[in-house]
């Protein structure tokens, strides 16, 4: 039994597996046989195939329903399911409505009037739809909100409707340390500990300033009280020091505290020269053997800065790009491959124009070759009311030099 079977994903090169992973090739192949692909598209809404919450699928699935000419009825039926199924259906139908599907639009408006999970549904619609599509649901919301066990949390559409909302209890205000000198902030970090909050405030202020090398010897003392993690903002503040932290990081990697050893290893991986390449290539290979779908994108970005000198990683980078179910990381593998070995990437960039992830589509727009197929797809992204505004703008910019000016 393969690892894909253990994780319940279909083969990475099958239409079903491609659609589960949100690959652009899945959308292209689905359009070649819409009837055969239809069950897999509907299954993508019924079951959550995202590896984690950072992965995108709703726009991908909504576009498939529209482009394959599939009726939205099975997705509408999922509104009656549990809260998670209903949420996925709302996200897909809301986009489908933007794409011109009146059935999806009316089904969602009806659900706000009668459905069980109408509160998060209306919040989603107010975030995505034009005001005119949902503003007239105010009276429905006023009547129905009285039957809810608690007040809603979000500001839209409730504040527009004049409906009372819950407001989170304000936490302690961060200390204003802008008037302190660098040395005073370091004293705050090194002196009798004022508690994690005060030290985090000092780190926050330092993170907005230039490199302060006096932070380096304090790093081992800047863990959380339980000794398991670095204090919040330590990584960000340390990043401003760049390679000057490398000598200390060589000591940190030998520390018995796991968080400090990891921090040291990260500093070395980010700032050492070509001598670190074999270690990074080995790390990526270990991640592939372990099918560690979360995290290899960081390794890929570190390898990318060495360009062709990191050619030993190409095989595993391609494996991750082809097979990962964690679609959020896919763009990092493509970027690393483009930096290290561009061979065969025209096809990968073209496929990415249909990818579920916004960043992958942006890479496709930027780098897919000027073929008729790719330019037609980029024009479709530019004109698609379901598409993210940043993608539409990038598509417009790519096509602008190729569009004849009107006199």
Q: On the 0-100 scale, what is the average pLDDT?
A: 93
Radius of gyration: 25 Å
Count of domains: 3
Judged by helices, strands and strand pairing, the structural class is mainly alpha
The gross shape turns out to be globular
Taking the sheet with the most strands, its summary is: none
Percent range for β-strand residues: under 5%
Question: What's the SSE pattern?
Answer: HHHHHHHHHHHHHHHHHHHHHHHHH
Key terms for this structure?
mainly alpha, single chain, globular, 0% strand, disordered N terminus
Q: What is this structure, in a nutshell?
A:
With 407 residues, this protein is mainly α.
Describe the protein:
- The protein has 407 residues and is mainly alpha-helical.
- It folds into 3 domains: 33-161; 196-271, no CATH class; 293-402.
- The chain contains 25 helices and no strands.
- 36% of the residues are buried.
- Mean pLDDT is 93; it is low at 1-6.
